[in-house]
């Protein structure tokens, strides 16, 4: 049901106005009739039943149909009930569907015909036309109010749904931003910390026979790498404060610098490039991250081994990357870094594979689209 049980201040005011209107309208019609009739029990019944029906208007929201049907019966003999009957027909049209309104309208039309037979009014045809026109106008007004309320409720529901969708999209955007932060932190800090591990391991291994100058140089490299790692961390955390597009992002042109930094850390890296053209920014950034993760894994799982990097591509043919290195005979599962790389490749409609070759090397390969 769409009728409220508890009335607010506005409902109380409306009900009071409706009650006073029905009472005034009914008494006005009754006074005209009383002027042409003698006071007898029929007149008293007309007045009492009409006033009682006026009182029921305070419950018209809860039982509009029942009260309207009761009004149809009472209005057969009570002219005082005419105002209340109009209000109840209006209430049914406002609070109930069209089918119910038509049934109540038909019941009151039959009541009108019975009233004309009981009262024996002069010019019954004119009175019937006037009464039906009044009932039709009241019912039409009630249906208009109902349709307007339904329209407003539909607009509210749409607004609520739009707000819900916007909130869900914002939450999804935040989730994607968190995933981007996680990937950036893993890719950037993982590589820097791997370089730190290599430098610190070399320093610990050669600590006894290293000269003070070599120890100082290694310590300076460790300090510089740690400082750079902090700078990278600040850039990644900057995603929380600025749009991603405003943050400094690596490009494919930074790949030689990445290789040189690994070589400076003592990693034997061989880079072969055969690139014809200029890579799109998002493809070049993805290629950089794949090579970076490959170097990080090589330094972590096979320290001191040679790392071979091959990058070949041209517009229309795509970009092929391969990072391979001798791997120790241990099981290497798919960590978060490799999962993140697969997600990166999938975002640009590429693919990524990894695994051990028949020669015992670990190979990380990827193909990325390069539009012509």
From TrEMBL:
<keyword id="KW-0812">Transmembrane</keyword>
<keyword id="KW-0597">Phosphoprotein</keyword>
<feature type="transmembrane region" description="Helical">
    <location>
        <begin position="101"/>
        <end position="118"/>
    </location>
</feature>
<dbReference type="GO" id="GO:0046983">
    <property type="term" value="F:protein dimerization activity"/>
</dbReference>
<dbReference type="GO" id="GO:0016020">
    <property type="term" value="C:membrane"/>
</dbReference>
<keyword id="KW-0472">Membrane</keyword>
<feature type="transmembrane region" description="Helical">
    <location>
        <begin position="12"/>
        <end position="31"/>
    </location>
</feature>
<keyword id="KW-0808">Transferase</keyword>
<feature type="transmembrane region" description="Helical">
    <location>
        <begin position="125"/>
        <end position="144"/>
    </location>
</feature>
<keyword id="KW-0418">Kinase</keyword>
<keyword id="KW-0547">Nucleotide-binding</keyword>
<dbReference type="GO" id="GO:0000155">
    <property type="term" value="F:phosphorelay sensor kinase activity"/>
</dbReference>
<dbReference type="InterPro" id="IPR050482">
    <property type="entry name" value="Sensor_HK_TwoCompSys"/>
</dbReference>
<feature type="transmembrane region" description="Helical">
    <location>
        <begin position="67"/>
        <end position="95"/>
    </location>
</feature>
<dbReference type="InterPro" id="IPR011712">
    <property type="entry name" value="Sig_transdc_His_kin_sub3_dim/P"/>
</dbReference>
<protein>
    <recommendedName>
        <fullName>histidine kinase</fullName>
        <ecNumber>2.7.13.3</ecNumber>
    </recommendedName>
</protein>
<dbReference type="Pfam" id="PF07730">
    <property type="entry name" value="HisKA_3"/>
</dbReference>
<dbReference type="GO" id="GO:0005524">
    <property type="term" value="F:ATP binding"/>
</dbReference>
<keyword id="KW-0902">Two-component regulatory system</keyword>
<keyword id="KW-0067">ATP-binding</keyword>
<keyword id="KW-1133">Transmembrane helix</keyword>
<feature type="domain" description="Signal transduction histidine kinase subgroup 3 dimerisation and phosphoacceptor">
    <location>
        <begin position="178"/>
        <end position="243"/>
    </location>
</feature>
<dbReference type="InterPro" id="IPR036890">
    <property type="entry name" value="HATPase_C_sf"/>
</dbReference>
